[in-house]
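Why ABC transporter periplasmic-binding protein YtfQ? Reviewers of the renewal asked for a concrete example.
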Amino acid sequence: GTTAMAQDLPPLEQKDRYKVGFAQMESNNPWRIAETKSFHDTAEACGWDLIATDAAGSAAKQVADVDSMIAQGIDVLFLPPREEKPLIPAVMKARAAGIPTFLVDRSVDPAVAKPGEHFVAFLGSDFIDQGNRAAQWLMENFEGDKGIIVQLEGTTGSSPANDRKKGFDDAIAADDRFEIVASQTGDFARDLGRQVMETLLQAHPDVNVVYAHNDEMAIGAIQALELAGRKPGEDVTIVSIDGTRDALQAIIDGKMGVTVESSPFFGPLACEVMKKYAAGETIPEWVKVEDRIFTKDNAADHIDEAY
Ligand code: AHR
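Here is what the prediction returned.
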């Protein structure tokens, strides 16, 4: 059972300073930069000697970065796995080296690497629920007769792309006003989101809804739509996830309908959970982050704290 497995997890000593690894996957969007900054901002108060790396969008480099952290003798590892399968070796190697590992913001394939056994816990949002809530907002607020949806997916094989698609598709399938005519990856990146949207607009000029798995791709889609003479917010409804500053501004400007929050500020939570673990407390396998929702009703109230 869970208790026996939890006892098998590598222990963490209680001490004043820890050598902590944070192996970031990439830094090409404001969300990632805010997450890395959150770890740096937490380091001093939590007694971390922080080793932070940037895998520049390569799962192979992220695995190598974890290898190097293990070699440097980290006490604890915080890992946002870029994709669900390619990062399993990193989790397993840290486990074999006796280093307690916490997955932050993204997860790995749970059929292979398990919380409470191969890693301590997953700290993060419910991505299925985020997709579900984006769909719910659309179903409640869409005013046309027929919604022709283009979906811009996140990084292929990543847990947020898999789960945000599932949560949205399952909810939308129950409403026959809507049809998803295309669903393609934009790799969570603004520029690729723009390019993919440009291409999809040629094939589906009648699109009037865009569901983007993150705000960066939504902003890219808005740029593509405007270049094509469309009016996002008027003739195209944009729904998205994250809550970046640019997205909140797009909501205030009337171009975007909703963004479901996905917070990048993991530093303080990582500190709290690590200290509890060191104190011998049982950590739930999933430390769930609760997400808000941003619309024209509250975007202006939150833009100052956005990233
Ligand atoms: O894992 C969370 C996702 O990753 C965020 O939604 C996205 O912006 C980031 O790159």
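Confidence is low (pLDDT under 50) at residues 1-7. This is the kind of structural detail the renewal will allow us to pursue systematically.
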